[in-house]
Structure formats: structure tokens, C-alpha cells
């Protein structure tokens, strides 16, 4: 590697309507560079449960951690990233609220993207994104086969996570990197750019759907490497 490996441990945190397979194309690229990679399986039952799962993954690492979050996973890493082991944060088309702010709160100033409107309740406060939502708004630039796998394997997501609020925002004290997906239909791209600016993050923009780590894995893996090596 051209840069010193400051964090050999990388913990990847998926978002809503998704699971650890979100990172299936990024993981091999990072492993090939000698990193220890952990993809957290969030239960998506509550914000507290998801933060706890991520904290357990951080605790299992043997040194400094680069903590990566996609979508709602950005809210999780904003809270869990306060762990002293976490050296850097990477937001991948992700929400980055401040303390006391929810996804709903920070999204209000921006045009509502079409994707979240295709999430429907299925009982007990849980939601599923419709097949049309997955195919047209969540992963519109993936293959037909990849979209079908996402629809079949989509986990149930608690609606309560969208109003959950971090108690302390790690990005105030930890260096941050950000991937803006300019064709995102789940988070307004101008909202992503605004969050990246607020974080003073080292930022790249890619012409991608919401699942930028699946449509542009090499570029996302490179940014994660940059964060792990402290390259700004």
C-alpha cells in the first residue's frame, strides 16, 4: 500500500432494507489489501439494538477501527463511532445527523426522494420496500439478477429507526470520508453533498444509485482504504 495502514480493522455497517451482503463486492477488495474486514448484521429491530450490534463488532477488533456506514448505517456509526477504538468514519451515501437529530429531521430541507415513499408497513411497526422500490429507486443500476436477490433477501426494518437520534455525533471528533451517490433515489443527492460538507469530509461523487458500494465497489473500497490510512 502506498499509505501506512493506520487501521487494519474495517467494520462495515449496512442500512435499512438491506443486510451484510450489501458489502459483498467491497469485502474481497479490502481483504486482498490485507485488511481484517467485518460486516455487521444489524437486526434492524431498533436503533439501540443496531448500535449494540455494531459496538460488539468494534469490541471484537484487535486495534484501531475504520467504521463504515451505508444509508441508515450512517446514523449507527455516528453513535457507535464514539468508541475510542474508532479512528475514522466513512459515510457511503449515508445519513450523518448531529446529536439529537433524526433522519426525518435532517431530511426536511431537501426534496423528498421517491424511494422511501415505496416502503409499506407489514405489521408490528416494521416496513418493507416494495419490489418496484428496490428495482427503480434503491438499486436501479444493478443487474436484474442482483435486484431479484435484494428483493428476496430484504430484511424487515423497524420504522422507529427513522426517528431515532444519536446522543453524541462522532464526526465532531473523528475524521470523516464521504461517498455522494449523484443518482440516489433514496436520499436526495444534494442532501448527501450537504452532509459531506457539514462533516468537512474528504468526499468523492459517483454517478450511482443508492447502493453505490455494489455499483462502484472499486471506488468505494479505495475511499475506505484512504480513510484507513489517514489519506485526506
From TrEMBL:
Q: Which organism is it from?
A: Terriglobus roseus
Q: What is this protein called?
A: Pimeloyl-ACP methyl ester carboxylesterase
Q: Name one Pfam family in it.
A: Abhydrolase_6
Every copy of the AB hydrolase-1 domain together lies at 10-222
TM segment ranges: none
Q: Which domain of life is it from?
A: Bacteria
Classification via InterPro entries: AB_hydrolase_1, AB_hydrolase_fold, Sec-Metab_Biosynth_Hydrolase
Amino acid at each position: 500500500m502506498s499509505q501506512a495502514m493506520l487501521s487494519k480493522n474495517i467494520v462495515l455497517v449496512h442500512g435499512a432494507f438491506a443486510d451484510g451482503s450489501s458489502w459483498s463486492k467491497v469485502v474481497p477488495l479490502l481483504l486482498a489489501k490485507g485488511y481484517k474486514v467485518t460486516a455487521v448484521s444489524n437486526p434492524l429491530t431498533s436503533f439501540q439494538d443496531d448500535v449494540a450490534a455494531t459496538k460488539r463488532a468494534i469490541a471484537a477488533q484487535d486495534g484501531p477501527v475504520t467504521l463504515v456506514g451505508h444509508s441508515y448505517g450512517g446514523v449507527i456509526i455516528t453513535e457507535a463511532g464514539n468508541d475510542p477504538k474508532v479512528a475514522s468514519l466513512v459515510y457511503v451515501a449515508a445519513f450523518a445527523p448531529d446529536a439529537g437529530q433524526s433522519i426525518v429531521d435532517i431530511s426536511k430541507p431537501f426534496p423528498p426522494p421517491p424511494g422511501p415513499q415505496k416502503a409499506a408497513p407489514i405489521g408490528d411497526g416494521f416496513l418493507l420496500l416494495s419490489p418496484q422500490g428496490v428495482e427503480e429507486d434503491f438499486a436501479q443500476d444493478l443487474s436484474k439478477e442482483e435486484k431479484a436477490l435484494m428483493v428476496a433477501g430484504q430484511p424487515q426494518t423497524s420504522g422507529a429507526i427513522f426517528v431515532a437520534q444519536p446522543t453524541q455525533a462522532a464526526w465532531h471528533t473523528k475524521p470523516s470520508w464521504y461517498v455522494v451517490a449523484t443518482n440516489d433515489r433514496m436520499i436526495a443527492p444534494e442532501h448527501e453533498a450537504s452532509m459531506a460538507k457539514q462533516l468537512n469530509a474528504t468526499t468523492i461523487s459517483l454517478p450511482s444509485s443508492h447502493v453505490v458500494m455494489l455499483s462502484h465497489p472499486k471506488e468505494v473500497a479505495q475511499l475506505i482504504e484512504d480513510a484507513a490510512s489517514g489519506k485526506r
